[in-house]
Each structure stands twice: as C-alpha cells, then as structure tokens.
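Project standup — Tuesday

K.O.: blocked on the structure for the chain from last sprint. Re-posting the sequence here as requested.
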Amino acid sequence: MKKWALALAACLAAGAFASFGCQPQTETIDVYLPDGAPALGLALPMYEDTAEDGVEYHVVSATTLHTFTTGKTPAAEVCVMPVNAAAKLLGDASVYQMAGVLTHGNLYLLAKEDATYTRENISDLVGKTIGVLQLNNVPGLTLKACLQGLDVPYNDLSGGGEYSDSAVNLRAVPTNPMVLTGADLYLLPSPEADWRVDSGEWKFVGDLQALYGDGGGYPQAVIVVKKEVLDSRGDWVRSLLSKIDEGVAWLSTAEKSVIAGAVQAHLADGLSPKFTAETLTDGAIARSGIRLQRMDGGAVAEVKSFLQNLIEVDGKFAAMPSDGFYWLGDK
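H.V.: unblocked you, prediction finished:
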C-alpha cells in the first residue's frame, strides 16, 4: 500500500500520470534508528507517520544497527548511527552520505556518593573505576579522549587488564541485561541515566559534554542517507530534516505519553524501551543533546576534529571518511 501510494503521489505531483503513465519509481523509505536520544530526535516524524506516507520507521537495538547499512543490499534508506561507525563503515561514500548531526552528546557520570567532577578536578578520578556502556563506541572513546586531552591517565580493563591505582580504570558495562556492579561510577546516556537518578539510588556527578574540548559537546549521532535517495528525492530529505528541527521544540510541549507512544509504536519486536511515559522527564529530554545540525563547512570541520580525536584514542573503532561523504545539498 505504501509503495503504490508513494509512487502515485510522485506521479500526480509531476503531472505525469495521464501523459506518460506511472511506474512505481520509489519503494518505501525505511528509516532505522536506535532507541534512546536518537529516537527522541525523530519522535515527531514518527508521531506523524501514517500508513500511506511511504516511510517506515524502525527503532532497533544499537547492537544490531550496523546490519541495516551494510551488505550488498542494505535495508536502510536512512539511518541514525554513531558518527564513528558511520565514518568507518560507510565513509567511502559509495552508498551513503552524511546529511546531518542529530545529537551532540548525552553522556553523564553517575555515582552513589555526592561529588562533582569538572575539568578542574578530573584527576580526582584516578584510582577509581568507571563502568562504561559501549566502551568501544562513542561513549568510551569520548571519555578516553577527554581524559587524554586533560592529561589524566586511564587504564582499559577490557581483555583481562588489571586495576591500577595510578590511572582512571575503565570497565565495560554488559548491555543485556545492564548490570551496574563492580565500579565506583558509571557513564550512561540520557534518558536512561535520568530514570536511574530519579529512582533515588544514583546521582549525577559529571557531564561528559562539559569535559570534552571547549565544553560545547561533540557530534555523536548522525543521519546517513542512501545516495540514490539524495539524488532522486532530495526535497523529501530536506523536509525530513526540517521536521526533525521542528521536533526539537515539539518535545518541550508534547505530552510525555505522546512522545513515548510515538517511539514505542515503531519499536522492534522484543525490544524493551529505553524510556516510558512515566520515566521520561523534561530534564531527560534536555540532557539528550538533540539539536539538528545540517552539514556545512563548520559542521564538517567539527565532525573531522571529533573523529581525529577518536582515531588518536583507538584507530580500530574510528576512521576519517572521504570528503564526498558529506551531503551539502541542504545548503
């Protein structure tokens, strides 16, 4: 139904239905994104999604996200994914291009004890152990880049590493299920971090966005689009970006049940939501770092700078993409 409705609308818009006949030139556009802050960023488009609009949204596990953009026939026409994964897996620009940055950091340090870690006293973390969700992805790599940039030694405990009392010790947090034991602090994303703090057991003790670089955050989750869609339906991509932009303000006015319901309606079977109407708060939304940044010279420079910092931490998990990877068609 969606495929034929989309094709019909395209033909009617072009005035070609009667003159030239109508062939279904575009199939359903499948948009894949992980739960959490990226899902909040696309909550408005998902809320307005209909059965006839030619777009399908799929909120999936972050651990399976890469499978939808790789292989001979990747399923995702549009995908929201970590910037390092996008650059490393898709950066040759043969299939996808980066159309925008969606989130600019949503990672926070949690502990049970009262404390506040800033750039001035970050060395107080030496000798402590931090549990990190996704140690080998943006969270862990960014934390390492922060510590490295502030001349604070760190010790990665993965692969059998041993505790050091002269460094910040980093331990991977298991994700299925997530177990918060064996560490003094934890680095978790909002909105998940927020409901743990709201439960009364944990406290916010550090803001990774304030610790990184000049304290203005970093390009975390990006939007990639198949080149064939950019070439044939650039106007639709621009309208999606505008809708995402509109959704940032919408998040501050919409009912929490509406926001959570829009995401849960597109959640993959068997996947537990990162937030619900009961756990989602204004603070969690604010801390999710959602701000659409279209690709221009400044945005490209920020992405390149961030990726270079991640590469210096560990080149196995990040790479510098080709210049053709950045889609400037929205400018």
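K.O.: great, moving the ticket to review. The first helix runs from residue 2 to 14. The first strand starts at residue 29 and ends at 34.
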